[in-house]
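Box 3.1 A note on notation
Throughout this textbook, protein chains are presented in two layers. The first layer is the amino acid sequence; the second is a token string describing backbone geometry. Keep the layers aligned when reading.
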Amino acid sequence: MLDHVIANQKKNDEGESIYEHIERKEIRKGAAATTTPEIRVTRNVPAGTGTDHIPMGPEGKPTDENAYRAELEKLVRSLVWASEDGRAQRDAYEKLEKHRKDKGELIDATRNAFTYTFIARELRGERTLVKFKMEPNPAFKPTSRATSIFAKVRGVAWIDEEANELAKVEVEVTDDISIGGFLAKVYKGSHFMQERYELAPGLWFPTYAQYDFDGRRLFINFSVHERTFYTQYRRIGPPKEALAAIRAELSKPAPTTGDP
């Protein structure tokens, strides 16, 4: 089951490179219960070697049509560049491919970095999820700084039994994690969770994530509490296909406001 889950997770990550979505972040800094969240809503569109984050209003719609169309024009230029075959583009795609390879190796490492203990079967709607406890595997030998972090976290994973897909995961930091040497540190007790659903045929994407991190950056302590909602997934395709879609969107007349 876990081998299938890992293979499917890699497929899902590749799928995200051709699907756009709306992302709503609610960010609190300091004590989570006493601060007003900062709300950021963006339309996230894959643009070949990166992702364009177009600002949106609180309801996931543009608040300023002219500014929104200007962002789409900028996206067109990014997609035109990403569709060309030049040295700069090849270098950018090679860097992207290395990042994907590194992430794939990190996902592969989770197979042996943890021991998985069956807890129970639970229903989520009409789907059966298999719940596992994840504990660091003392026999695991890290191969990089990134994989060494696995020894300092534990969690719970819920696997969709029929699809062999990761449906939910919760992770807790069990020991302080240093990042960039002395530059930053994430403290013990920090927490992360994510939920995923099948939102396209054979592809499971995040719908909700939550971070509660305490730590230190240089000599300043920080506390970040972030909730992210992912909605309106839509296939937009690789750069040439996405370029045609965005140009078609720009060709439509801008909505007008005011009384008729």
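The radius of gyration is 21 Å. The CA atoms of residues 17 and 132 lie 29 Å apart.
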